[in-house]
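Worked example (supplementary).
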Amino acid sequence: MFSVARTRLGTAGAKVASGRALSLSTFTSQKMAKQTRPIINNSDETTYAALEARLNVQFKDRGLMKQVCTHKSFDQGLESSNERLEWLGKRVLNLYVGEYLVAKYPNLPMESLQDVQHANFGMGSLAEAGKHFGMLPAMRWSSSAGPTQTVGATKVLGKAVQALVGAVYMDQGAAAAKEFVKRHLLTKPVDIEAVVQLKNPKTMLVELTKRKGLEYPIARLMKETGRFTSSPVFIVGVFCGTRMVGMGFGSSLKMAEYRAAKDALLKHYAKEIKDVQLVDADDSDLTFFKDSEATASASASAFAA
Amino acid sequence: MASFRLPNVLNSVIHAHNDQLLRAKKPKNGVGAFIFPCRKLVFNYCERSGSSKSMMEYLQRQAMNFAEENPQIEVVVQPRPSKHPVIRAFYTNGHQKTKCVRKCSADEIPEVVKSLRDHSGHKLRKWNRYVISDTPSVRGIYSPFHVKEIHDISDQKSK
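After joint prediction of all chains, the assembly is encoded as:
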C-alpha cells in the first residue's frame, strides 16, 4: 500500500536506466486545490526532474535545476537563488544571439541589431519561451504585489531562462550551451521589417547610393491602373541607372515612391542569409569551468579544484 | 541614418504602436526542439471506495512503469478519500484536463492515461480552413486541376 507520509518512490535510482530521479511522488491527503487562482510555489523535487527531461538536459549537479527556478524574492533570500546563474547566462545568451544575428544579417546597422535583439530575444520573448517550457509552475518566487499574485512573472521567468542558459553553460560546457540556445531560442522567425526604423526612406536611399558609388536614384512609374478612380494602383520602381533597386505600390504616386524607396533600403539592410552556418563552439577548453568534477551550486566560492 | 525628431506626444504613440507590433510571439513547438505538452498527471483515488478498485490496481502495477517511461511528466499520486477516482492532466500551455475513471475496468485506465498524455492541451476548436499558413498567398492553395497543363502520368506508365 502507499504510505501516508510524503515519500518519493524510487529513490533507489538503480531501477531507472537513465539515472534520472523517478518522477513519482506520494503526498498526504490534502484538500483538492481549486485551480481558479494561480499556483505558486507548489513545486517539488520531481517537478525539476521532469523539467530537465522535458528540456533534454541532464545536469551533473542534481540541485541545479531547482536553483535555476529560484528567484531571490523567494523565502527572503534564504535559499540560494538564480541571481549569479542569471548574470552569467545573460552574457552567454547575448553572445550566441549576437553571433547569430551578425551572421544572418550582414548589412544590418548596429541600432537595428540592438532593436532586433531586444524585440526577439529580450525579456518578453524569453518569458514566452519559459512558459512554453512549462517553467512557470516550477518557479519559486513571490510577487511584490502579494504571495498569490502573478504581477512581475514576465521578468522573473525571463531571468529564469537566462539562468537556465547559464546553468547549461556551467554544467555542460560551451558547446552544449550553444546547442541549447540554438535549439530552443533561435528557431522562431525574426520579423525584421517591424523593427528596422526607416524614417525618410528617400533621403536615406540617396545617402546609401552615394556611399555605394551608384548613380542617383530615380523613381519611374512602371505600371498603373485606375488613375482617375477612387482606388488607383501605381507601381513605381526606383532605378540607379538601368538597374532597379526597389519596387513599391501605392494608391498615389507619392505613396508608391515612398514604398519603393523603403523596399530598396530593406533589400539592402535587411538582407538575410538563409540557413546561416554557425561555427560550432569547440570545446570545454573555452570556458574557465573545469569539466571533470560536477561544478557545484553557484553559491560555492571557488570553481576550480 | 537620417532622422528627425517628432513632438513627444507623437513619439510615445509610435512607441506604443511599435511595442504592440513587437509583442513577443509564442515559440513553435517542434521547429527546433519539441517540448512535450503534458507536464503533470495527478492520480486521485480513495482507498475504501469500490469505484477506485481498478484505479488502485493500475497504481500498484502499471503507474511506476508509466512514470519511468515518461520522465518528462511529473506523476503525482494523491489519496482523496470518499471521492471518485480522478486523473488530472496539466499542460504547458496552462490548460488542464480532468477525467473521472470511476468504475472503469483495468483495461480502460491505461487508455485514458495515454489519451491524456498525448493531448496537446489546447481546447477543442473548429478550424474553418483546409490549410493554416504563416505565408498565405493571395492566389490561394495550389490545386493540380487548375493549372495550364494538367500533369499526365500516362506517358510515364508506357515507359
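Two points are worth noting when inspecting this output. Chain B touches chain A through 47 residues (CB under 8 Å). The helical segments of chain B are 8-21, 53-61, 63-69, 108-118, 154-158.
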